[in-house]
Amino acid sequence: MIFADALEWLLSPGNWSGSTSIPTRVGVHLLYCLAAVLGASAIAVPLGLWIGHTGRGGTLLVAGGNALRALPTLGLVTLLYLLLGGGQVGVVVALVVLAIPPLLAGAYAGVQDVDRGVVDAARGMGMTGSQVLWRVELPNALPLLLGGVRNATLQVVATASVAAYVGIETLGRPLLDGLRVLDYGQFVGGAVLIALLAVALDLLLAGVGGLVVPKGLTLGTRRRKGKLSATAAAQREVRGSKA
């Protein structure tokens, strides 16, 4: 019965037009998610790569990541919304904070997981620290790094629904309105939309990962093939720099 009501709500023409329509809310939801993931990536990815490359601050990173994960989502969104003047910036900042841990963990773990023999070989062939990071460690870290991006995106898609509690017209609005008037069809319909959006974005990022990650370099084969592929790449880079 509830699922039939949800389907009826989803197919209702009145929900597909106007300023509070489903397409409008999907667009707003996507904008907040995009802003949050990009903002968090600008902070977490360089920091995670640097810590993974230098090996400094790993313990602090783990402790900080766990602390950020423990923050209450609704409380953080509400607090920053009020502290930053009740505008959209507070919501975006809260989502950025919540997206940082998986991105930071993915970047750090990706670099740390690179075969140390490959790194030593690259250094032995004359590569500088920055060359090792960008030409050897980063390509080999891409599977875990992109995994962190996917995890952060899924978390933000789910968390952005909380923004409806402070008046933002995201896909959390049907959940909030449905609970307020006990319209469980609307509530389930909103939940289905969020789930579909999360699945669609995850599939999109998986496709992007398949295009970006070097051929043969996957989580399952990286330990077997990573050393050979990275060493060959390092040799090509050194030859190019000496030419």
TrEMBL record:
Kindly list the biological process annotations in GO that this record carries.
Answer: glycine betaine transport; transmembrane transport
**Start and end of every ABC transmembrane type-1 domain?**
26-205
Q: Where are the transmembrane segments?
A: 29-52, 59-83, 89-111, 188-213
Q: What InterPro entries does this protein map onto?
A: ABC_transp_perm/SBD, MetI-like, MetI-like_sf
Extract the SUPFAM superfamilies matched here. Answer: MetI-like
| One Pfam family, short name | BPD_transp_1
Location (main, coarse)? membrane
Its domain of life? Bacteria
How this chain sits in the membrane, per its record, is: Multi-pass membrane protein
Q: In which family does this protein belong, per the annotation?
A: Belongs to the binding-protein-dependent transport system permease family.
* UniProt-recorded name of the protein: ABC transporter permease
Q: Which organism is it from?
A: Actinosynnema pretiosum
Q: What is the lineage of its organism?
A: Bacteria, Bacillati, Actinomycetota, Actinomycetes, Pseudonocardiales
